[in-house]
Target: Ribosomal protein uS12 methylthiotransferase RimO
Amino acid sequence: MNDIATPTAPRVGFISLGCPKALVDSERILTQLRVEGYALSPSYDDADVVVVNTCGFIDSAVEESLDAIGEAMAENGKVIVTGCLGKRADVIREAHPGVLSISGPQDYASVMDAVHAALPPRHDPFIDLMPAPRLGAEDYADGVKLTPKHYAYLKISEGCNHRCSFCIIPSMRGDLVSRPVDEVLREAERLVRGGVRELLVVSQDTSAYGVDLRYAEREWRGKAYQTRMKALCEGLSELDAWVRLHYVYPYPHVDGIIELMTARRADGQPRLLPYLDIPFQHASPRILKLMKRPGAVERTLERVQSWRAACPELTVRSTFIVGFPGETEAEFESLLDFLDEAQLDRVGAFAYSPVQGAAANALPDPVPEEVKQERLARFMERQAEISAARLEAKVGTVQRCIVDAIDGDLAIARSMADAPEIDGLVQVQDGRDAGLRPGEFADIRIMGSDEHDLYGEVEYND
Ligand code: SF4
Model:
């Protein structure tokens, strides 16, 4: 992390844990710190105070967060805690009674108040003619980003109206609160103007975007847009960037989004990346009911198949939980059958682990740990074969890719089918020789594949 203010400025260390939504919170806090003249410290020793942005989603994330707080306490001693685990202040206080302050997710004001109390901002009468401003949401587009320069997460809403029995996010982040569409589009516009080439739309439930605002209509670039997923996607597709959707539920109105994935821009590229990240979580109707998940499986499978028929290049990514309380061997096998039928491109899976405060903890018939692990291994093995076959089918094709990094002779790139961090890579063997640079697009001829990644050579470099 770079130093962002003068050497004499008060210095803040920052640890960011958790999902992309937490990352966006971290970026906003860091931006506010910069506006107020604080410097960032890359080490505990140099920091005057340390902020830890925590995750509290599953028990292992809680442990990781508590460990990070413990390390910061031991190494520095002045620690401000924020983020999802902040909603469970008792857990933090019990493990680390000496922390300076605890606040929940998105509570930027409490974090800044705690920083001010621990470390008053340096007042310089020659430059501080005005008090530092509190930034509005869209000002953050010009702020500190924790992702590489060429991609950015675009958070469109907070919270969630569902009540999945294994999840405590609604109790931590509350019900759905959408950002008005013009605000999101203006932030996206500024990000693209600042060099971002790929926008990753994140929320807890992207399909539900705008329902809390009754799809309020706003204006952007002289045109009316509803605060609704399709209108948002139409607006984003006007920008010169890849737009990738995460956390989409398979509701009927997603069909309209597929149309944007098949439509082309003037340069022949899809208006919206043909990529959907849909957390199915399971395929057994009984388990989905116990999970309190929306959506019936038959229809889901049909829907995925109809999307593929309309948009053959569509990549579907999903996540699943195996070993949910009460899951029988037959129900688990129905999940394997679903994998065979749905032929998903990318899949993440977890063995169920109870989360403190989740309704699912009260369900009977927990699956023994060794059975969970055995099912997880079988699940991953089945999906690995599917993923490998789907990637192998791309050998010989030319894929439009974005370059993330240069590593020796290789360019490390991603195709339209690969979201950063969670999906695979395209290793471009002649990337350096071809003069590729991070953030650039190139057409790559695919020469080989394995379970996760593709290997290729430059066909055409923009
Ligand atoms: S959709 Fe379910 S799992 Fe996702 S945040 Fe909402 S309650 Fe949690």
